[in-house]
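Appendix B, record 7
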Amino acid sequence: MSATQVIQVEHAAAATTKSVAHPAKWKFWLLTVLGLYPMLTVLVTVSGPLLEHLPTPLRLACIVPVAVAAMVWGIMPLLTNRFAAWLAR
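C-alpha cells (predicted):
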C-alpha cells in the first residue's frame, strides 16, 4: 500500500468517526470545586494537629499529593459518573 493510499484510508476513517462533544469547561470546574473543597477541608482539619509544627509550605507539600491522588483516582471519577448526563447536556 502506498503512502497516498494510507493517507486516503486515514482520512476516510476520520470522516466516518463520530466527533464527541466535550462538556463545557465550567462544568468540569464546578465538579472540581464540589469535590476539592470538602476534601481539602477534611484533610486540613485531620492533618492540622499532626503537621502544625511544620511551616506552611511543608504542610502543603504533605497535603497536596494526597489531595491530587484522591481527586484523580477517587473523587473525579465518582463525580463524572454521577453527573454524566448533566455533563453531556
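Remarks on this record: The chain has a mean pLDDT of 87. The helical segments are 3-16, 25-51, 56-82, 84-88.
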